[in-house]
Amino acid sequence: MRIIDLSTPVDASGWEPDPVEHRILSPAEGAKHMSEEMRTHFGVEFDPADLPDQELLSIDTLTLTSHTGTHVDAPSHYGSVARYGDGRPRHIDELPLEWFYAPGMVLDLVDAGPGAVDASFLRTRLDRVGRDPDPGDIVLLRTGADRLAGTPAYFTDFTGLDASATHLLLDMGVRVIGTDAFSLDAPFRHMINQFHGTGDRSVLWPAHFVGRDREYCQIERLFGLDALPGPTGFTVACFPVKIKGAGAGWTRAVGIVP
């Protein structure tokens, strides 16, 4: 089999609205740090000078949001109250792992342009594939926005889904929808301008807010969907990091091709 990386790196050198801080202790600095930690927390005395080259282990410390890099949004990200089940949306550590290992389908939205596509547009892309996704399949949206990753334009120029398009996929039994864009919704400017022009609140984050009515997850900030062998014929693995009580978790998403 082939394993195709579908993930955007966490990169402190790239442009982010919430900048990533990545601090690195070298192996020599790590030796001093570990010596101090062992003394402080465990009462163990240890001299780094006794180590080969006076080095132990490097240590990376990062400060970032759970929505930096490729990540999975949990139902609790969409709001504090769900209009399904017992009314409590689940966090990322509470979701079934089976959701995140399933046959995949790619829908091509590259020519759609910035904004949001609706159910009728998405229907044309499903017709191109020649079949609908099966229940439990993971649907990935290739918008081409990943080519802008690391730049300000990545956060302003991409294609998202409106409520009708999101409902269409959920009606088919899809529980995880992924995109190579910053968000599953339209860009901020597009939504806000549309709201100011119409006064219609339903244009604000509709794809996310569908998650208040129906339980599902999003994979955002995927990369390289064009490396997959076709619209189908592969499996997606996108297990989220188990962060207790979190609304999202990072993932190393991959496509697995027999």
Structure notes:
By secondary structure, the chain is α/β, with parallel strands linked by helices. It has 2 domains: 4-9 and 65-257, 3-Layer(bba) Sandwich (Glucose Oxidase, domain 1); 21-63, no CATH class. It contains 5 helices and 13 strands. The chain has helices at 27-42, 119-129, 163-171, 188-198, 206-210, and strands spanning 2-5, 21-25, 59-63, 71-73, 101-108, 115-117, 138-142, 159-161, 176-179, 217-220, 235-237, 248-250, 254-257. It has a 9-stranded mixed sheet, with helices on one face. Helix 2 (119-129) packs across helix 3. It starts with a strand and ends with a strand. The mean pLDDT is 97.
What integer is the average pLDDT?
97
Number of strands: 13
- Relevant CATH superfamily of the largest domain: Putative cyclase
Looking at the overall shape, the CATH architecture of the largest domain is 3-Layer(bba) Sandwich
The total of helices stands at 5
> What kind of assembly state do the chains in view correspond to?
single chain
Quick structural overview:
The chain is an alpha/beta fold and 258 residues long. The chain is 20% helix and 21% strand. The chain folds into two domains: 4-9 and 65-257, Putative cyclase (Glucose Oxidase, domain 1, 3-Layer(bba) Sandwich), CATH 3.50.30; 21-63, no CATH class.
